[in-house]
Every structure is written in C-alpha cells, then in structure tokens.
Amino acid sequence: MELLQAAFVQLLQPQMLLIIFAGVSAGLLVGAMPGLTATMALAVLLPFTFTMDALQGLVALGAVYMGAIYGGAFAAILVNTPGTPSSIATTFDGYPMAKAGRALEAISAATIASVIGGIVGVIALLLLAPPLARLALLFGPAEYFWVAMLGLTLIASLSGGSLLKGLLGGTIGLLIGTIGVSPIGGETRFTFGLPVLQGGIELIVALIGLFVLPELLMMAARGRGALADVTVGSVARSGFMKMLVEVLSKPGNLVRSCIIGQIIAVIPGAGGSITSLVAYNEAKRASKHPERFGKGAIEGLVASESSNNVMVAGSMVPLLTLGIPGAPPDAIILGVLMLHGLRPGLELFTTSGMLAYGFILSMGLAALAMLPVGLLGGRLIYKAIVKTPYNFLVPGIALITILGTFALRNSITDVLIMFILGMTGFVLKDLGIDSAPIVLGLILGVIAEMGFVQSLLRGAADPYPILKLFQNPLSWVLIVLTILSVASPYVAAHVKRRRDSRNGGTPA
C-alpha cells in the first residue's frame, strides 16, 4: 500500500500529468486515422523515450496506447472506418447513430464506456494479476483452437439477416487468411508465384480495404449528399449527462463487457478485435431488443468500447507477470522494460515496485484523461469532418488511408492489395455480404489453424492425435460455450415464435 501511495504521489507531479495528457492526445489523433495503429504510434514514440527515465518513458507509452485504442472509435463512428482493429464492432452501431444525426451522442457514449473500461482494466491488473496470469498459462494450442471456434460462431450475429451470406463472408475471410507461408509447416499457399504475397495479407490492410474503400466509393457516388445524414443534429442533443445516465442505466452490459475484455486480454495474441466482437455479440444476445443492434443501439457501442479499453491494461497481465506480450503493442513496452534492465515477473514488483505500480496507476490516470481530451477532441474532429466539403473529404481520407497502408511495411504491394480488397468489398456489399464476417474469418482463421495443427503435432505419437483437442477440461468449457453460442439464436427464435403464436391466439 505504501508503494501505491508513493507511486500515485509521484504521478501527480505537473511533468507527469503533462506527459499523460500529451500522450493521450497524440494517441487519440493516431487512432482516429485509418491505418495508423497503436503499435505504430508506440514504435514512433519509442526513440523519444530514450531520453526519459524509466517511469516517464513507460507512462508516455501507456498514455499513447490508451489514447490510440480509444481514438479508433472516432473514425468508426464518423466515417464507418475502424481506426484500429479493436474498433471493428464500434462501426456496427456507431455509424448508424451518426447517420441518424446522433454522432456526438455516439462519441459521448464511446468516451464514457472507454473511460470506465480503462479504469476497470487497471483495477483488475492491480488486484488480479497473479491469478489471471495463471489462467493464461492454461491456454495451449487446443484451447486457442476452441477460442477461435467460439469466435467464429459470432458470424451468425454479424450476418445482417442472412446466415448463408454471413457464412460465405466468413469463408472468404478464412481463404484470405491462408495466403502466404503456412505458420506451421512453412508451405507457400495461394501466392500465385508472387514472392510479395509470401508474408500474407496484413490485417490492417484488409481492414482498410474492406471497411474504408467501400464507404469512400459510396460517399463519392452519393456526391454532395454524402454527409447529409451525419450533419443532422446538434451539440445540444448530445448532452454528456444524458449519455452518462443512459450508459450507467444498464450496468449489466458494462460489467459483462468488462469481464469479457479482461478474460480475453490475458490470453496472449487474442487481441482487441476479438474482444470487442465477443462483447458485442454477448450484449446483443442478452438484450431485450436485439433487433436494434446494427441500427444505432447504445448497448452495442458501449460493449465494444468498454471491452477493448479493458484490454489495454488487461494485456499487461501476462507482460508484467510472465514477460509474454499479450498484444503487439505490449512487445514495445517489453522492449522499454528490458532497455532499462527490468525483468518482468515477481522481481519487477519486489525490486522495482515503485516503477511497476507507477506504470499501472498512470494508465488509470490516462483513462481519466480521455474524458476531457476525448469530449473536446471529439467535437473538433466531428466539426472538421462534417464541415469539410465531400470533394475534399473523400480524397483526403483516401490519401490518409493510402499513406497509412504504405507505412505499415513500406510496401506498395500492400496498397495494391488494399485497393483490390476495397473493390471486392464494394461489390460484395452490393450483393448483401457484409465486411464484418470476412474480417472475423481472417482474424480467427489463422488462430484456429495454428491451434489445430500444433495440437495434432503434439499428439503425433498417439494413436488418435485429434484427441489432443479434447484432453484439457478448459477445452470442454470452451466447447460447451461454442455449442451454446450456436444454439442460442435458434432457441431464442423458437421461444419468440411460441410467444408470438400464444399472443396471437389470445383474444384481444
């Protein structure tokens, strides 16, 4: 407790507070730009931390990380573009709210949910790091496979009313994920003789191509009326206190989403994109009005943003206790720790407790800083977008996406792939096949393949290697959850039909 108090006092110094606010603001701007990820923001910031002491450097990185994950919501809400992969689910209800003239309401709700999620993640990291780290150790290849299978059941919720089209989209995503060198066997697949495809399709490239370009093409087709819907409404309609009451009026949604985010966050490699999608699906399943989801439901927006911001601190659990980066940005933070001669694990909390607790508490302060920075920045970004003529806005967003795509790997091939996927996504969207199932298949296909093949390799000496997928009790828990996830929509539909038929047969 004394270490916590001392670390908190040190963070209240003006210089530290300035670093936190500057880091959150910079992260927000990076996250709001399609193609510029939290990992890229931390990589750019890394050289500047060399001149800081260990705590200042970690505080700056944590603040930028928190701000970047939150910043992805702005592009998701205003232009239907996931600024970061963890904002995929935010587009489902955030953009319909913007089209209905409730853009500032959506930004306020996303800000409140992000702040709450960030604080919950920090509290969980302080209190539950050791047991959660032990939970992460229970996940082997078989468990990763079943987690991916559980995630793929979300296709039913993301299908836009047609399960067949959703499954087709998921299959397309799975096929895209097989392009390149096999992660286990090393075989080259579907490269068509082009060496540049051996590295596979970068997730961010696919996100930009499938989400951004189709929307830009539709904006260009609508012409001057492209932002007519988004500009409806006023600041008065997006009162902060009104949204605060509405978000807090459904505590079950917040608690459930934060728990989901925390559990998935401690699994190394799972990532915020899966976190927000699972939380969104569970929010829809538990809602009394699931038909509102995808049309501007506050619950869906809150579920996505609260869960993916829990992940920021939650992914630090395996990093600080086991030295295993829970997400790609955490690898950069691990590098800073090693640079200053600090080794993750129990030793970090015993010999460098001030540093460890100072870093954790700084992420809580960064989450609080998102409230003023986000609300002020949200209005500025909103006004900049809606007041910019479409003939400047469309090419401007296109230029940013091209630069962001190229900057990922300094590859012009990624830009070409982005354009190809964008045109494909535009055609598929016209056919009623949404981009969300495609991206879900792309994300989870790689995880499922690696888990499946590694499990078979581990059981190569057994008579039936496939049984390796069923040996761990945790695998059976995930299998049951997968079955329940598949069955629940059909059970709910059956119950609804029976209720409707009963009500229809009752005399008025």
Query: Number of DSSP strands?
Result: 2
- The mean pLDDT is 79
SSE order, one letter for each helix or strand:
HHHHHHHHEEHHHHHHHHHHHHH
Shape: globular
Strand line-up of the largest beta sheet: 1-2
Alpha-carbon Rg, integer: 22 Å
| End-to-end gap | 65 Å
Protein structure class: mainly alpha
Helix-residue proportion:
over 70%
The low-confidence parts are: 228-238
Description:
With 508 residues, this protein is an all-alpha fold. Helix content is 72%, strand content 1%. It has a two-stranded antiparallel sheet with strand order 1-2. It is globular and about 60 Å long. The relative contact order is 0.18.
Write the layout of secondary structure elements.
Elements: H1 2-11, H2 14-31, H3 38-45, H4 54-79, H5 90-99, H6 103-137, H7 141-152, H8 163-177, E1 180-181, E2 188-189, H9 203-222, H10 240-248, H11 251-265, H12 272-286, H13 298-314, H14 316-322, H15 328-339, H16 346-351, H17 353-386, H18 390-409, H19 412-430, H20 435-458, H21 473-504
Antiparallel strand pairs: 1-2
